[in-house]
Write a structure and sequence with these properties.
By secondary structure, the protein is an alpha+beta fold. Helices cover 52% and strands 11% of the residues.
């Protein structure tokens, strides 16, 4: 059950309530200092996920309760890592509230957008998007776009130069470009002024499928009529069919380095739309 306490300016009623769960006076002082430094940042994270002030406050208060329960770990966490630990707890609490309200599937099942990060994307979309990246690039983009660190702050945290930070950000963006478009181009479909690198038809799942059908390069079919080398889409995601025989239907995708991953029955019959690329 979520306990909610109205937050007044400065947040002192919540803090006064929370420190009653901390027994040691020295720990109370330490907790107070951490709360005052990070509470606003945690609430911002929760609000970006939940888009509701009361829900965000619920999530942050639950996060602080978790911090108190694990307060003995604080001394083992460096100052540079503390914010990421607090943000991780806050995200988990916020996502639990979001799933309860929406009664959705688990986070790993959510559709992730194909666009390169921009300020119009919401928090959970960015989280899902960044899971596609290798750890080196994921950490850098999370700090830049989720925690809104400056390049200098990222450089200090990671122990690299600001130039290296910029390189990782740019490389991370490149890795998020649509895998299926690259494969289709490699298969011989010609690019034009509409379908080209960095265009919306190249990056967007729905626009890619529409472009291929409208221009006569592909037809929409049932999965039984597709074979390896064709593609399938669902909202926000596209994959390349790598195996289709009488036993298995599998796909390969950039998301979490999937290679020959099997489609589920629901994915075959309702989740994905399947497309056959024509010979031309």
């Amino acid at each position: 059950m979520i306990l909610w306490i109205p937050v007044t300016e400065g947040g002192s009623p919540v803090l006064d309530y929370l420190i009653t769960f901390v027994d040691d006076e020295a720990d109370r002082q330490k907790f107070t200092a951490i709360y005052q430094e990070y509470h606003a940042k945690m609430e911002k994270v929760a609000l970006r996920i939940l888009s509701d002030q009361k829900d965000a406050e619920d999530a942050v208060q639950n996060a602080w309760i978790q911090v108190i329960k694990n307060f003995s770990k604080i001394s083992k966490i460096t100052c540079g890592e503390l914010l990421f630990w607090l943000v991780s707890i806050t995200k988990n609490e916020a996502l639990m509230i979001l799933r309860k309200k929406r009664k959705t599937v688990p986070l790993e099942e959510w559709d992730a957008p194909t666009e390169v990060p921009n300020h119009d994307m919401n928090y959970q979309e960015l989280v899902a998007l960044f899971t596609r990246l290798p750890e080196t690039y994921r950490a850098t983009l999370e700090m830049k776009f989720l925690l809104q660190y400056t390049d200098r702050e990222i450089a200090v945290h990671l122990g690299i130069s600001e130039t290296a930070v910029s390189t990782r950000v740019n490389r991370g963006r490149t890795l998020l470009r649509e895998f299926v478009s690259q494969c289709i181009k490699a298969g011989g479909v010609p690019r034009d002024s509409t379908w080209k690198k960095d265009s919306s038809a190249w990056i967007s799942t729905s626009k890619l499928a529409k472009y291929m059908v409208d221009n006569g390069y592909a037809t929409k079919e049932s999965y039984t009529n597709t074979n390896a080398g064709n593609f399938a889409t669902r909202p926000g995601h596209s994959v390349l069919i790598s195996i289709n025989n009488t036993v298995d239907v599998c796909y390969t995708a950039h998301n979490r380095n999937r290679k020959d991953a099997p489609f589920g029955n629901t994915e075959l019959t309702s989740t994905y739309s399947f497309y056959v690329i024509k010979n031309y």
